[in-house]
Amino acid sequence: MKRFSWVTLLIFVVGTELVGALSALLAGGQFSEFYNALQQPPFAPPGWLFPVAWGILYALMGISAYQVWRADLVGSKAALFLYAAQLAVNFLWSPVFFGLRSLPGAVAVILALDLLVTAMIAAFLRVRRTAGLLNVPYLLWTLYATYLCIGVLRLNG
Fold first, then answer.
1. How far is CA 10 from CA 4, 64, 82, 142, 155, in A?
2. Is residue 26 part of a domain?
3. Rounded distance between C-alpha atoms, residue 46 and residue 36, angstroms
4. Mean of pLDDT over the chain
5. What is the pLDDT of residues 75-87, one digit of tens each?
6. How many separate domains does the chain show?
7. What secondary structure, in 3-state letters, does 24-62 show?
8. pTM (global) more than 0.85
């Protein structure tokens, strides 16, 4: 196991948060106008909740990835590869949904994200149980977002 480092932990957390921020920046930033113009499925939250939830989830992702990196076990590299893959797909969702305004594309991206997050959690659990469990809220939120995305497509597509 690698030694604990606050600096490295901070790099993991801030790096993950930056992925979300850059994705939003690339998407164009006109979220509320577009989101509010769409018909929403039942149980859709107010738009302000999304950045709050994602900020917390990105922090948990960064902490969990740091734990896997620090464990330095046989499955760590494969688990971190899945982490990077899901983060890349996560990055794509906002530009596809808000930037391109492609509802079918956003559904395709989020379905791929669901699969990658599930695989990542399974890999993290094998390396460090806590790291996997820290991502359960992420999976639940992503599944909820999948419901919303499909609902928006059905109501507006």
1. 11, 12, 20, 24, 41
2. yes
3. 9
4. 95
5. 999 999 999 999 9
6. 1
7. HHHHCCCHHHHHHHCCCCCCCCCCCHHHHHHHHHHHHHH
8. yes
